[in-house]
Amino acid sequence: MKTIQKKVDAQYPDADIIAQAAQILQHGGLVAFPTETVYGLGANGLDEAACKGIYQAKGRPSDNPLILHISHIDELRPIVRDIPKTAQKLMDAFWPGPLTMIFPKADCVPDTVTGGLDTVAVRFPSHPVAMALIHKAGLPIAAPSANTSGKPSPTRAEHVALDLNGKIDMILDGGTAAWGLESTIVDVSVTPPVILRPGAVTKEMMEQVVKQIAIDPTLLQKPTADFRPKAPGMKYTHYAPKADVFLVQGDNFVDVINDLAKKQKAAGKKVGVLATDETKVNYDADVVLSVGSRENLEEVGTNLFHVLRQFDAWDTDVVYAEMFPLSGEGLAIMNRLQKSAGYRVIKSE
Ligand code: AMP
Ligand code: MG
Fold it and tell me: Considering only CA atoms, which of 238, 237, 236, 144 is closest in space to residue 185?
């Protein structure tokens, strides 16, 4: 398959290009498009065969459900059975934006979208290209991240092309995704609502609007053999570059990483360090890449997946990564880092 690639203005996308992409979606095709979180791989969310195409292109396990994307609040009602009060409050506060909510599903939503669950995940993105495309297609658009399953999510069109060129119909290139980590997922079908995946809309932000928000205990822990995740995606390895990633904990992490790097280099390995602006000059390794300043976790979120992919481009064998606080945006960053490291943490002192 030849993949059409078109540049679009992120604020004012060309109407002809959006119309072409919308037509592909209406005919059962696959279109990758930018959102404010990461690039999504879209298909008609009411078309079983089109959604199967998403799983095939990504190599995604069929029990890991998709998120339906809408472009107006009125498009929610037809795809869900119930809109709980807490969901209404969260919608009023954070939609359009990087928040996905889990609702009881309506009959029109195919099992392929929900992985056979009785619930459906829904998001109303705020990116002008995503909004224009969904609106023009006139359909709920099923869209997981537009990467090969298991790899870091794409934050640039070139990441999408590297993974999916020749496997999908079209890529809309709208530049770098601003937030850079996937949406927050919150299950509003239970009381209190539970965060299943941390993201840009933080627990602290949601607690300004609803009384209590719980966090799924498995967000930062390795799933056990009998683990039954609420978000099926939680049980799969994720965000992993080819290198072995280790997180390094403790106040003297710079010294610890330098010691480890020295040993690995002596063993003939190419060593990478995932550093920050504050520490990057202090490392002695083959590839030292900063994810940004510790003072600006939003910037760290934007850069994280690109930096993880860069370690692949540099062919590193092993990567040592710094850690971040678990509050605010730090929770989303640590959740992705833990998964990319397969939960391997080296504790110093
Ligand atoms: P991604 O494609 O990478 O954004 O993945 C979408 C995420 O949403 C995955 O982690 C899914 O497991 C999760 N998800 C989708 N639908 C549901 C649902 N009905 N209940 C719980 N999690 C869901
Ligand atoms: Mg994904």
Answer: 144
Per-residue pLDDT of 259-295, as tens digits, reads 999 999 999 999 999 999 999 999 999 999 999 999 9
- pTM exceeds cut of 0.90: yes
For the chain, the average pLDDT equals: 95
Answer yes or no: are the C-beta atoms of 66 and 143 closer than 8 Å.
Answer: yes
The Cα 43–Cα 50 span in angstroms is 6
Instruction: Decide: helix, strand or coil at residue 129.
Output: helix
170: β partners: 4, 31
Q: What spacing in Å lies between the alpha carbon of 151 and ligand 2's midpoint?
A: 8
Task: Identify residues whose C-beta is under 5 A from ligand 2, the ion.
Answer: 145
Query: What is the whole-number distance in angstroms between the Cα of residue 237 and the centre of ligand 2?
Result: 10
Does 143 contact ligand 1 (Cβ within 6 A)?
no
Residues 6+ apart with CB under 8 A from 259: none
Q: Which long-range contacts (CB under 8 A, 24 or more apart) does 341-346 make?
A: 341/245, 341/246, 341/247, 342/222, 342/237, 342/240, 342/245, 343/221, 343/222, 344/244, 344/245, 344/246, 344/247, 345/246, 345/247, 345/248, 345/249, 346/246, 346/247, 346/248, 346/249, 346/256, 346/260, 346/320
Render pLDDT for 309-330 as a digit per residue (tens, 0 to 9): 999 999 999 999 999 999 999 9
Residue with CA at minimum distance from ligand 1 atom 22 = 231
Token code pair at residue 114? 């929900």
Minimum CA distance residue for ligand 1 atom 2: 144
Amino acid at 209: V
Rg, C-alpha atoms of the chain: 20
